[in-house]
Amino acid sequence: MIKKTTIVDIARAAGVSVSTVSRILNNKPDVAEETRQRVLQVIEEQRFAPHTAWQQLRSGKSRFIALHFPQDFNPLSQGIITNAAMRCEQFGFTLNLIVGALSETDLLGIFRSGQADGMILVEILVNDWRVELLRQHTTNFVMIGRCADTTGLSYVDSDIGAGVTDAIEHLVGLGHRHIGFITVGRITPEKEYGFTAWARQGYHAACRRHDLPAYARTTDLTTDSVVAVATELLTQHPEITALVTPQDAAVPGILKAITACGLSIPEDISVVGLLDESFAEVMTPPLTALSFSSRTLGFTAAEMLVARLNGAAPDPQQILVRPELCVRGSTAPARAPQMIGKGTP
Asked: Homologous superfamily of 64-158+294-322 in CATH?
């Protein structure tokens, strides 16, 4: 039988009292540094605490990284979270997920109380108060996404504007001149999702480049809202022969609206969405879609933050990952615009 090492064994081996070992384990300050290091050495040799635990004791750092993924816009991305956690663990850190709303006091308290050495922020707003607060207090954080002012900040983000441009280029190449664009997410001056803003900018820039009319709409977060807005758009503008959305949450509503308008994909209208490859390929017809690797975003953000924590990356790192446009069966050469409800061939 393997004998379990106890705090008494540690005290005896280090030549100190049990209370002294207890104070060190609880990271109390009232212990001589020489004594602290001797006890920590014994803890390491005796494997009394896990490697991460005695690293925390020795360094005074928590070895925890917090990831704040507020649920205002999108469902949690399992790929981002899982891969960020995996990469953190490979570097000897533990990732804690926070999904609820935080106040300024809550956010700063995570750092001041030693709950985390650094933070990964997700679901970034164009003007994000979390970013400004942490920037003012010179804390260690990185973003998955980006805000309007990224001066001095580190982030990894999908270059969704470039992805939307690629989608428009593909459709223009098929002869489409009237291309609708639908995004999901409430927009107010105080609260605009960065991903949506950069996607919309990419759409308008592509329309200007090709001298196309712009038909951009933003819906609420529900499928019913997407159906209503898409139906209205197609009814008011029967000249539209293609629809693009940069968000997977909008795809079901757009498909329902197209069916409700009596249109067929891709004969009457082409569709480009953003959807995971495994889902895009099983749709009928398979969806031409933008895709990007959540693994890359999660891994890269964790690597960035750990490098900052270890002093290996003193300068900001800013990485944009261009989505890949996978052409499938939902796009085809433009046909004459369908006059909805008019029976036009």
From this structure: Response regulator (3.40.50.2300)
pLDDT digits (tens, 9 = 90+) for 179-206: 999 998 766 666 788 999 999 999 999 9
Determine the Cα–Cα distance for residues 179 and 167; give it in Å rounded to an integer.
10
Q: Is the pTM of this model over 0.90?
A: no
CA 104 to each of CA 110, 114, 118, 145, 177: distance values in angstroms, whole numbers, following the listed order: 10, 16, 16, 20, 47
Q: Which residues pair with 289 in a beta bridge?
A: 273, 326
Q: In CATH, which of 3.40.50.2300, 1.10.10.10, 3.90.870.40, 2.40.50.840 is domain 160-292?
A: 3.40.50.2300
| Contact predicate 119/283, CB 8 Å | no
The H or E element spanning position 178 is none
DSSP result, 191-234: B-BHHHHHHHHHHHHHHHHTTPPEEEEEE-SSHHHHHHHHHHHH
For 38-68, how does the pLDDT look when each residue is reduced to its tens digit (9 = 90+)?
888 888 787 665 445 545 545 456 578 899 9
Which tokens hold the place of 299? 């891994």
